[in-house]
Protein 1
Amino acid sequence: MNVFDAVMRTSTITLKVRSETSPEFIDITDEVEEFIESSGVLNGIVVVFSKHTTAAIVIQEDEPLLLDDFRNLLDSIASSDAKYSHNDFDVRTVHMHDNECPNGHSHCQHLTLGSSESVPVIDGKMALGEWQRVFMVELDGEKAQQIGYREVVVQVLGQT
């Protein structure tokens, strides 16, 4: 079969990722790999996207001491103890819920991490390096406890 005979396919799933605290690094690599395999896509790209402004997607190494370093870094960038206008519910008037929690720090931390990662798919597998893993990073532990999970959209596009 030549490249022009290949069938293009797009498949999408929404993972419900449970989280309990923050910052929490949750390895979702295996779930993404299983979805790619079930999609039948052999060569293409997979996008992993968080539907939240306080839960990020990153590719990083799953080494416990390094993850502790990342937690310390996030706290130094935007500590939960700092003052945030977003948390002043007497002044803030937009995008409010009845059970709003003070989470300005988690939005600021998210700004440094991002909402998505794109990874090439080659021969039905993500082309990750030896130590690379895909993480959802929970940045708002209180929100995580309220809703119990976060939604991560995984979409794979490519040739079957």
Protein 2
Amino acid sequence: MGRRKKGNPVHGWVNFDKPYGMTSTQAVGKVRWLYSAQKAGHAGTLDPLATGILPIALGEATKTVPFLVEASKRYEVEIAWGEHRDTLDAEGDVLETSEVRPSRAEIDAALPGFLGQISQIPPKFSAIKIDGKRAYDLARAGEEPEMKARPVTIYALTVINAAKDVLTLDVHCGKGTYIRSLARDLAIALGTVGYVKNLRRTMVGPFTQKTAIGLDSLEDLVHRGAAEDKLLGLETALDDIPAFAITENEHFDIRQGRAIPLLPKAAKDLKAASRPRYIGDLDASRYVLATYEEKPVALCDARAGQLSPKRVFQI
């Protein structure tokens, strides 16, 4: 007999508005504890000094985390000119200073050079692993970890405010983008130095500030027994994956891990028999969310005329 899991079978996403100073791991632990959930995870680490959107998956929603990791993100960042800091943020020691302050015209001229796919060297104070060790652990030990450049994608850079000493930008980017590296590189391109003074994540895929909830508000809801009001469906992270309604018999097969045909086994006429069951506008190899009575059943692979379950939700 299997060991009973501790906690409650809570399944879904919490669009958590992470406060300043809290690590992503601490945030996951806190939310899991508040919901008394059996398991939890997050999609996309957010630095302790950053605030904003940190989607936290509970229960079976953790099976959808890999799909959200691929989602684009948006940040509001304040870049302070005139100081280069070792951590590239407000926490670090000042290593270099500059009196140069870029003009708005110079900023506007430089920003297009950072759009599209660019090469970026991550900060040495980051969670990237080098020979099995975190880069920030090596850096804090006084070592100089070799940070290799990697491609990232930036979709849009919009100036919110350009004061003399601080530039505020809205950044829309793909996965793996380091905003601290962007601030460093933009400053260099403008002939000065700079660091991230404040950073707030405002979007992770379908998760936006509109549905986010902060720690105090969530604790209040838990106290009132209304925390489930802020629990989003596990399919929230799958907004760009087509849904495919299945029958009762197919539901049973999928739950048992068996593939189901996308073509009808029998048809009354040749026209019906030759018409595939399309998934949206496509009949191609791709992930599909199988649903029964409008509830998620499994993530499946549509391939070779059949739907094969890959991650079955135990809810």
Protein 3
Amino acid sequence: MKILVLSITMLFACSIATLGHGGKKHKKDSTSAQVDSAQHKQGDTVHHHAEGMKPDESKVTADLDDFPSLHPLIVHFAIVLIIIAAALQLINTILMKNHLAWIIGALLLVGSTSAWLASTKFHPHTHGLTPHAKLVLEEHDRWADWTNASARIALVLQLAYLTFIAYKNRNQNTSSDLSGPTRYTRIAAIAIALILIVSAYSVSRAGHYGAQLVHIEGIGPQGKFLEMEHDH
């Protein structure tokens, strides 16, 4: 059973990641945007190389202050934890295990907090973007907003669900799994799973556009096109 659960979890995570990075449309758009980006960079190369961060070759492990933005370090917690929480919640709609529900709640708490921090306090400010890069950034931010909203809703519902089962178990004088999950607890678990699927898909889409900004538009490496956080 443990092997089956692990296999389903890995399969679900991989499928979400594939959805987030699939589609030929983005490759086509990126190809057409490379011309605009190249033209912009030709006139702006000296400016950005002068203001971009230069790595310290005397040390292998960079300090946190060496990064132009901590956004990439924070956002990966949200991506991984929200997707795993969605996979586990989907499994738990069948198993209905209390200990698994608590694990999902913990993953959601850390994941939704990471998503919020990545999109607010640690969201990098940009400048000098091409028109196409601005469109990509708007899509990235739009899916990030969907991630934040759906993850928070799922977290609130999961906390309410955990409060209910804790109260029910206390009245039954047991800390084990619910004896015969009720129709309403299963419906609640399914509702949370559906919201988490939306959140997992949204965070994968946001990650897709984030990768496009970095690896295709060239925004972020060595601080290019970014306002340095330590300058504020």
Protein 4
Amino acid sequence: MISKEIAKTLEDKLRRDTSSLKELGITPTLAILSLADEESSAGLESYLKSIRRKAKSIGIEVIHNSSSSSRELLETLDKLSSSENVNGILILKPLPDELIREIPHRIPPLKDIECISLENMGLLFSGHPRFTPPTPEGVMKLLRGWDIPLEGKRVVVIGRSLNVGRPLALMLLSENATVTIAHSRTIDLTALSREADILVSAVGKPEFIREEHIKEGAIVIDLGVNSVNGRLVGDVHLESVIEVASLVTPVKGGVGPLTTLSLLENVLKATKIQLQIKS
């Protein structure tokens, strides 16, 4: 099953779930916050458009608040946190360091659809997640849709961010994969990556992963979103890697659609939790 088919199956399910909620008079609502001076960052505009488009198709309402300063964003976050009409809150990156440190303490866990609050991260790392982060969940949905067995497989995740690399490694471990997290300080990354049955790149360097990084027949998942001369480019140099790997995800139509749908799936889950509706 290709990525598009996996996404369509999930989208159809979410549409049915939303219809059931609307029959009860409930319209799931997602609030998106961003900083105005960061909205032209690589991939952000595309991601926002994707969320709006898919949410409309599914029946989820989206409210977007663009703030001119960190202080204004936090004030808006506090208002939305207490609003009964908002079920999920998404804060778009990039963000300044002070916001990255503050937001996990401010976002209400029951509306934290990215799993960035300390409570939700703790639940995830203890093996009892309330929500799973959208991008790692998109990767897991893709692997399940491809019928890729993970037990005993050697997986290398390049990138150690709190919202992608680390939670993805944990989710892969829960499926009994053997996982290594690599990063910018890893010694001899090429040799390490060549040991991987599955290589996941979230390093944020355009076309960094090339043929020499890949074991013959490996699966390569590209999570990179980089802007090069006005176009989106992944972490993987597709032309060289495709000669060696058995499967490679493209930048467009790869994990991205499943990330968006996993985010919206969390909005529906959050709505049900808040209103104490059993699935």
